[in-house]
Design a protein that fits this description.
Length: about 400
């Protein structure tokens, strides 16, 4: 099996040679020193070989992923070589390249991120260059799209779209559909600098009480109502809360254990369940029309999909709070601000917010060691919120 170290240390010889990985994948070391990926397979009892790009432009991980894609074609009785040539000859479009790239990557993403990526690409890239052969797309085409977003001050969107375009074209280079990535060398200096804006939040105790009472009066679905009422208590990101699973709720130990695949930090996140949160979850679980097999805590209109973070945002707006006054992320900043002012230790608060630890000493400190202190903090916070609701009713 190959490793990056083994590939990097492979030196050219008087003649080309190959180092095998597995399942037909190998890397060819040319006399010039260049390193090219090769995939060997048998088609109709004949040995056949395909090029999968050069190293390090195509990483070991990417090469293995491409090999697995080609092996899946063989299982469907499709000759990978004919399939690849047909795509090149037909002038594969940006839309088709995007679909290939998205399919290859999305298994390692959360479903919400995968869906968001499709929506952004369709709105800002595929709409304009989707039907254009990828080999005919120039840097000017990409710059035109990005500069339009720049002129409209959509700088967050610009950053995301630039990232998607770069990755799709990098994938296309690796698949030998194009030779140069037209998005790679677009200079950042031609775009406006994004300001670091904090999410709008509410930290005045009296105003927090009014917000909690407004949420309690929300007239939408019970799933959105419950999620909104739980949100101030648990400090979760909107997508983490809206996509909550019953399988992530440890009723015996009164904990929420969010799977690493749904966390921004890609680490399991533990949230102690206060009495108030436990009561709301119990009430939601107790509805008779909830299917036994349903794992989603907050199912949407389609029972196999949860409500979305956007559902929470729309609900907040329906209560009369503008973007400048409060956002769904504001629940986290509200808790952080008030708990710091109430004298709780910063490391407890940061751990509960699931912020990635940058201090190497603290990073190795097992988060379970904080659990009882966090449990006490979360219960005190829920009691505090109840008190504010009562005082400002």
């Amino acid at each position: 099996m190959l490793t990056d170290a083994k590939i990097k240390n492979a030196k050219p010889k008087n003649k080309e040679y190959r180092i095998a990985d597995s399942n037909g994948l190998a890397i060819a070391i040319k006399t010039s020193g260049s390193k090219l990926w090769r995939y060997r397979y048998r088609w109709q009892n004949k040995a056949t070989m395909l090029s999968l790009g050069s190293y390090p432009e195509v990483s070991l991980f990417e090469a293995r992923r491409k090999r697995d894609e080609l092996r899946s074609l063989l299982k469907l009785n499709i000759n990978p070589k004919s399939f690849k040539h047909a795509e090149i000859e037909s002038g594969i479009t940006f839309k088709k390249a995007f679909d290939h790239w998205h399919k290859s990557q999305s298994s390692s993403w959360t479903s919400s991120y995968a869906n968001d990526t499709i929506k952004r690409a369709e709105k800002y890239l595929i709409k304009y260059i989707g039907n254009k052969p990828i080999k005919d797309i120039s840097s000017r085409d990409i710059k035109t799209i990005l500069l339009d977003l720049n002129d409209r001050d959509l700088l967050d969107t610009l950053e995301k779209i630039r990232g998607i375009a770069k990755r799709v074209f990098t994938y296309a280079v690796g698949m030998d559909w194009i030779e140069i990535n037209p998005a790679r060398d677009i200079p950042l200096d031609i775009f406006k600098k994004k300001k670091n804006n904090h999410y709008a939040t509410i930290t005045n105790p009296k105003d927090i009480g009014k917000l909690l009472n407004a949420i309690d009066m929300y007239k939408g679905s019970r799933e959105v109502w419950t999620a909104l009422n739980i949100a101030p208590h648990v400090f979760l990101r909107p997508s983490e809360l809206s996509g909550l699973r019953w399988s992530e709720i440890d009723g015996e130990n009164q904990l929420i254990r969010i799977h690493p695949s749904r966390m921004k930090t890609r680490q399991e996140h533990i949230v102690p369940i206060s009495r108030q949160v436990g009561d709301m979850l119990f009430m939601l679980r107790g509805y008779p029309d909830l299917e036994e097999e349903q794992d989603l805590v907050f199912p949407g209109r389609s029972f196999n999909r949860s409500i979305t973070a956007d559902s929470l945002r729309v609900a907040i707006r329906s209560l009369g709070y503008t973007t400048e006054q409060f956002t769904t992320h504001g629940f986290r900043h509200m808790a952080s601000t008030r708990l710091n002012e109430m004298g709780y230790r910063g490391d407890l608060i940061e751990r509960q917010l699931a912020h990635r630890e940058t201090n190497n000493v603290r990073a190795v400190y097992n988060h379970a060691d904080y659990l009882e202190e966090r449990r006490e903090m979360m219960q005190s916070w829920s009691d505090y919120l109840d008190d504010l609701r009562e005082k400002n009713n």
